[in-house]
Design brief:
about 500 residues, alpha/beta, Rossmann fold, Isoleucyl-tRNA Synthetase, Domain 1, 3 domains, four-stranded parallel beta sheet, four-stranded antiparallel beta sheet, 16 helices, RNA-binding
Length: about 500
RNA sequence: GGUCCUGUGGCCGAGUGGCUAGGCAGAGCUCUGCAAAAGCUUCUACAGCGGUUCGAAUCCGCUCGGGACCUCCA
């Protein structure tokens, strides 16, 4: 049973075979830290966090590189060179690097909330200006870029003409035909200095008002949109690496340009497997800057957005994301989020309970062989589903088939002897492995010993009241705790537990 | 206009031609001092019209609807 991934380049599922046995190099496009991350950003970083976790689980030594784009790129070609980061800085009266630091910190905070593992290397664009300049020089030397008025452009036509002969035409990833493209590219002003409309900037001359600027062989300026990823990926992962991830919206032009740049410099296509996650939509429309429909992550966590009827915790969002396949669009909605919130709580409680249970009452031979086989079958499918292009929704579906079995065992609605102790231990181990280690889910609220003690005391008093048939006291404790958001649950056998809403 | 994706029950969402996805919500039952929780059972589907096939949500065609990219975007 081997891992298969959907490769955007071939448009098909392929068996994953790393270039260097035992090792995996993975690059994922990181955020532009000119603003706060929104719900849409949560998707790729959660998706590729699970990919990272699973590859490690499979025993690979993974180098996961995710950049921070902290050098401004222009808003739109043709407009006056306008640096996203520097213009925002003027607005907020902050130094550019102060702004960058602020949003980088916020991004890291959000990632930690989601329980995303930090990447192995998190390089910044501004820390790799030299590497980018060197790469641009190489492209010029090879004849695929030209300098005009202090800016450098990639010659897409020439690249396409030459590399088409090697079956590496420009547009290979996004399925675009360059010649069709030329007809459909919009007419933008101030493109005179480019030889062709489809050429893209590698280096841009900085106008006087531009704050972020660096010395280069072509004068003071700043790097183009795409070169940072090529330069940093090459530096840390080599001329060819295994996985490049990112959102589908980056496929063109960003990833297409990366391929062109790196192929010229490294004389080989840079990436073996291109993985793209689909978008999070809101009312059927992509969440994005251009639509002005983003909900910031801090707003999600706090419930402070007109479209939110309540706050949603990081684990609710992580679970929500993992309940759909990463290549499908996922539509935001309060009802859907609420469903995920409840579902995750139910799953987590069952998970905690199964970990606490022992094998007392179980033997080597199950009394219900069908059930025993069913449980083992459901567990065995975890790996199968994960190997099938990371089908996390199917894993979660299987887990929910196990939940009633676990709850039944706990409440003695199902005989302990139903399945073998080996099966039960397998259940405990696989649930732990997939819920915590691979899907990266974790307990919602942090433990608070004092609160725990107080609640335990109230539970004891209520138990006593119930034993004395003092239902006035018993109901008072239950109702008033419920009003405070603590749900008490009477379990079979007289035990009580609580859930904080 | 070009390229591509998509349309599943009240909501979200898996679905690799034949076998109940799953979650949330709804209904009934069991349990319970009552309730909740839990367990058991259960109702709502495959946009429409044709075609291929013994058999289609799944393949093909058309129609209608939604969306993405072609511009910064996860």
């Amino acid at each position: 049973m081997s891992l298969k991934v959907y490769n955007s380049l071939s448009r098909s599922k392929e068996v994953f075979t790393p270039i260097t046995p035992g090792h995996v190099g993975m690059y994922v496009c990181g955020p532009t830290v000119s603003g706060e991350s929104h719900l849409g950003h949560a998707r790729p970083y959660i998706t590729f966090d699970v990919v990272y976790r699973y590859l490690q689980h499979l025993g690979y030594k993974v180098r996961y590189v995710r950049n921070i784009t902290d050098a401004g790129h222009f808003e739109e070609e043709g407009r006056e060179a306008e640096d996203k980061i520097s213009s925002k800085a003027v607005l907020e009266k902050l130094e550019p690097m102060e702004l960058v630091q602020k949003y980088t910190n916020l991004f890291h905070w959000a990632m930690a909330q989601f329980n995303n593992l930090p990447p192995s290397i998190e390089p910044t664009a501004t820390g790799h200006i030299i590497e980018q300049i060197v790469m641009i020089q190489q492209i010029i030397a090879d004849g695929y870029a030209y300098e005009i008025n202090g800016s450098v452009y990639f010659d897409v036509n020439k690249y396409n003409h030459h590399f088409s002969k090697q079956d590496l035409p420009y547009g290979i990833l996004s399925g675009r035909n360059l010649y069709e493209q030329l007809d459909t590219t919009r007419d933008l002003s101030n493109q005179d200095e480019k030889r062709n409309k489809s050429d893209f900037a590698l280096w841009k001359k900085a106008p006087p008002e531009h704050i972020m600027r660096w010395q280069s062989p072509w004068g003071e300026g700043f790097p183009g949109w795409h070169i940072e990823c090529s330069a940093m990926a090459t530096k840390y992962l080599g001329k060819q690496f295994d996985i490049h991830g990112g959102g589908m919206d980056l496929q063109f032009p960003h990833h297409e340009c990366e391929i062109a740049q790196s192929t010229v410099c490294n004389h080989t296509p840079p990436v073996k497997y291109w993985l793209h996650n689909n978008m999070i939509t809101i009312n059927g429309r992509k969440m994005g800057k251009s639509y002005g429909n983003q909900i910031m992550l801090s707003q999600m966590f706090a419930g402070t957005h007109p479209l939110l009827t309540q706050a949603y915790s990081p684990m609710t969002i992580r679970f929500f994301v993992l309940q759909s396949h990463y290549r499908s669009t996922l539509d935001f909605g309060n009802d859907a989020l609420k469903a995920s919130e409840k579902a995750f709580k139910r799953l987590w409680e069952a998970y905690e309970n199964v970990q606490k249970m022992g094998t007392v009452g179980m033997s080597d031979t199950p009394s219900d062989a069908d059930l025993d086989a069913k449980v083992n079958g459901l567990l065995a499918e975890f790996a199968e589903f994960m190997n099938d292009d990371f089908s996390t929704p199917k894993i979660i579906a299987n887990m929910f088939e196990l939940v009633p079995i676990i709850n039944g065992l706990k409440n003695n609605q199902l005989a302990k002897s139903s399945f073998s102790s080996a099966t039960f231990v397998n259940l405990q181990q696989q649930m732990h492995l997939y819920i915590e280690v691979i899907l990266g889910l974790r307990q919602e609220q942090t433990q608070n010993d004092q609160l725990e003690g107080v609640l335990q005391l109230l539970i004891d008093i209520r138990k006593q009241a119930k034993a004395n048939k003092d239902f006035v006291t018993s109901d008072k404790i239950r109702n008033e705790l419920a009003a405070l958001g603590v749900m008490l649950k009477d379990e079979k056998g007289g035990e009580m537990s609580y859930t904080i809403v």
